[in-house]
């Protein structure tokens, strides 16, 4: 994205990311003329990428996780970030293919979770 200023989560609409991903798919010749790929394939690819993400957490002990959270393992965070991006890119493609408004659905889900009671195994606060 070449906006002439730094772009990050604070100033980038989700629609802009969706459009960048579609443009990438068109450049690569993936999907239809808009760059929209088969949502079934996208959902499957998303789980593969989720596994790649999980691989970076496999066999970590609690001390490793503490170090990760404290910023003491930037190389691992970089690898996690890359797989996170893969997962999110497929998620946004899925949303695009099925006309899912990400913001509307996340806010709707937050409302559903807020209104539902605690799970039986959830600790009381
Ligand atoms: Mg990957």
Summarize the topology.
Blueprint: H1 14-28, H2 39-55, H3 62-69, H4 74-97, H5 102-115
CATH 2nd-level architecture of the domain at 38-100: Orthogonal Bundle
Q: What fraction, in percent, of the residue positions are helical? A: 55-70%
CATH level 4 superfamily of the domain at 38-100: MazG-like
Q: Return the CATH class of the domain at 38-100.
A: Mainly Alpha
Strand content: under 5%
What features would you describe in this structure?
Helix content is 62%, strand content 0%. The chain has a domain at 38-100: Helix Hairpins (Orthogonal Bundle). Helix 1 crosses helix 4 and helix 2 (39-55) packs antiparallel against helix 4 (74-97). The protein has five helices and no strands. The protein has 125 residues and is mainly alpha-helical. The radius of gyration is 18 Å and the shape is globular. Bound molecules: magnesium ion. Magnesium ion binds next to helix 2 and helix 4.
Write a concise synopsis of the structure shown.
The protein has helices at 14-28, 39-55, 62-69, 74-97, 102-115.
Give the tags.
single chain; 125 residues; mainly alpha; Helix Hairpins; 5 helices; globular; binds magnesium ion
């Amino acid at each position: 994205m070449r906006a002439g200023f730094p772009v990050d989560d604070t100033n980038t609409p989700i629609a802009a990311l969706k459009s960048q991903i579609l443009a990438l798919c068109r450049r690569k010749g993936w999907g239809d003329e808009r760059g929209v790929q088969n949502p079934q394939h996208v959902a499957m690819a998303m789980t593969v990428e989720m596994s790649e993400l999980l691989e970076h957490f496999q066999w970590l002990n609690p001390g490793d996780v503490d170090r990760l959270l404290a910023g003491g393992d930037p190389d691992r965070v970089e690898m996690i970030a890359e797989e996170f991006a893969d997962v999110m890119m497929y998620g946004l493609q899925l949303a695009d293919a099925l006309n899912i408004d990400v913001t509307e659905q996340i806010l709707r889900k937050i409302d559903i979770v807020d209104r539902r009671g605690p799970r039986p195994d959830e600790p009381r606060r």
